[in-house]
Amino acid sequence: MWNDQKQLVGILGVHVDDVLLGGTGLLFEGKITSLRAAFPFRKWKEWSGEFCGSMLTQNPSTFAIAVSQEKFAASMKRAKTRVKGKAEIEANAKEISEAKSVLGSGSWLAKESRPDLSSQVSFGQQTFPSPTLGQVRATSHLVRRAKQFKDLEWTILPIPLDKLRLSLHTDASFQNAVKGGTQAGYIVGVTDDKLARGELAPWSPLTWKSYRLKRVVGSTLAGETQSLIDGLGHAEWIACHLAEACDHDFRLTSRKESLSKFCMQAIVDCKSVYDFLTGPGSPIGVTDKRCAVDLIIGRESLNRMGATLRWAPTDRQLADALTKDAAEPTDLLRAAMRGKVYQLGDEPSLLAAAAVEREQRKAKSKSIKNPQAKAAAAAAIQRKFANKGGDSLSKAISVSFVSSARMVKVPTTGLSELEMRRLLEELASLAGEASVVVNSRTICKLKIPLEFVNVKFKGNQTLITLAFTKPRRWCRSRLGQHTSTLSRTQSRP
After folding, report:
1. Mind listing the pLDDT tens digit for each residue in 402-436?
2. How far is Cα 74 from Cα 329, in angstroms, rounded to an integer?
3. What span, in angstroms and rounded, lies between the C-alpha atoms of 219 and 449?
4. Of 45-59, 277-291, 324-338, which range is least confident?
5. How far apart are CA 172 and CA 268, in angstroms?
6. What is the three-state SS of 301-317?
7. How far is it, in rounded angstroms, from Cα 7 to Cα 28?
8. Of 13, 342, 12, nearest to 187 (Cα)?
9. CB-based contacts of 30, cutoff 8 Å, min separation 6
10. Domain residues for 14?
11. Strands, sheet with 48-51, edge to edge from the N-terminal-most edge strand
């Protein structure tokens, strides 16, 4: 609804028999009075109410709208399966029906307000029509996450239309989907000019999707490019709707000028895509010519929308949570939703900082080959356990490796949980930035250079992962990404 000055004063949305509207001014209020006189509304709520199963609450001071589905998430139930039975066997009809019910509920929840559940729902749906018993059991993780973060809200920010800007995060995970497919995902969000300036900017998701690419791709570059094109298409669709609301004379055939007002920032974490699309030349050097055509289509779409392509490291890519079922990227997405802010750094500065970190990591990795460094590491661990008395240290370092294809298991019966965690923490402090640590109530995981462990592994691996699992009281070691075997069965870390 526009007034005589062609200014937007009201808007109304309808879904079946649910109506959602908002506006301001005498013209809007008069039209609402006429609407209520013409139609007998059973319920009429202001500032808060339920719409399409979601509870909407608007802040009277800031006008921000919080969308919550806490009650629905709390009511979700796990799929009932056989207690006994190998994970590889095919699920029966009843178990498949249970899984469909869980994924149906999860799909609606993920689509309406919970993008953090999107990847789990997508991966679960890809197992049909013949999921295994293990895949049906895996749907319990979806229910657990939905309930664990049931208080997570999707906030619609009160950004003025003249300051409204769009953002797009896209990502793809090569051959991460079922049957070797590539999982892709994108998030279209709203923000303001601060994001383009590298400042901490308000941010909120507008629409999102996690899905398996329909086309089989042969490389990460092709998958990232296709995901970017899909995201740009959806972002342009959203931008057209917003442009129509802002501009009374909007025409689809001449939309370029209207869309460029949103100054969209398209964010990828694939450096190759960024280089090809921001470079002056054409992607003639790309071997996959279908991918080269997609890159050209992506560049044209960016130009048509007046968008800017940005690069961000993977640990700042919000769409990463839509391409893999992992804790770290999902935590980042939930943090952005709760904080309602996001920030981009300057690409040259980020790349220069990454290069410095890489060189420091290489330097530290080389330094631990020094015999003096190894001796210092052993002495530090000895001091760590000195106050425990007796043979605590000897129990910690006298372990029996049980070899398998890619993993060895170390029994830790002689150690307390605190001792095991402190041992891994000490190793992490010695490795410094060359280590990667995950520490939770049930698991303590450490990835360090192989030189810290004097085991003779075959192959050219450079890293070893040590993981202590509390329920089973095992310390597990895993090599890199390739199969390796032990040349001896006993060693000392």
Report:
1. 334 445 555 565 667 777 777 777 677 666 655 66
2. 23
3. 28
4. 277-291
5. 10
6. HHHHHCCEEEECCHHHC
7. 12
8. 342
9. none
10. 10-44
11. 48-51, 54-58, 65-68, 154-156
Instruction: Look at the chain and count its residues.
Output: 493
Token match 């090809």: residue?
276
* Together in a domain, 404 and 436: yes
Q: Which helix (H) or strand (E) holds 230?
A: helix 220-246
SS3 category, 226:
helix
pTM of the model: 0.71
Q: Measuring CA to CA, which residue among 457, 461, 346 is closest to residue 401?
A: 457
| Beta strand extents in 175-234 (DSSP E only) | 183-191, 201-202, 204-212
In this structure, are 161 and 303 located in the same domain? yes
Give the residue ranges of DSSP H helices in 346-389.
347-367, 371-384
Please tell me the distance from the alpha carbon of residue 106 to that of residue 112, in angstroms, as a whole number: 10
Residue 10: is it exposed, middle or buried by C-beta count within 10 angstroms (0-12/13-18/19+)? middle
Closest residue by Cα to residue 226 from 207, 240, 212: 212
Is residue 470 domain-shared with residue 403, that is, in the same domain?
Answer: yes
Least confident of 163-167, 350-354, 365-369, 442-446: 365-369
Query: How far is the CA of 210 from the CAs of 114, 121, 257, 439, 479, in angstroms?
Result: 12, 9, 30, 28, 30
Token pair for residue 256? 């370029």
Same domain, 198 and 334: yes
> Which of these, 93, 224, 241, lies nearest to 161 by C-alpha position?
241
CB–CB of 175/150 below 8 Å? Answer: no
Q: How far is CA 169 from CA 7, 231, 322, in A?
A: 31, 8, 10
Strand partners, 83: none
The answer to whether residue 355 sits within a structural domain is: no
Instruction: Please check whether residue 49 lies inside any domain of the structure.
Output: no
Distance CA 144, CA 222 (A): 34
Rounded-to-integer distance, Cα 122 and Cα 174, Å: 15
Question: Which residues sit opposite 172 in a β-bridge?
Answer: 184
Confidence of residue 283 (pLDDT cuts 50, 70, 90): confident
Q: How far apart are the first and last CA of the chain?
A: 72
Burial 179-191 (b: 16+ CB within 10 A, else e): eebbbbbbbbbbb
Domain count, the chain: 4
Query: Do 316 and 199 sit in the same domain of this protein?
Result: yes
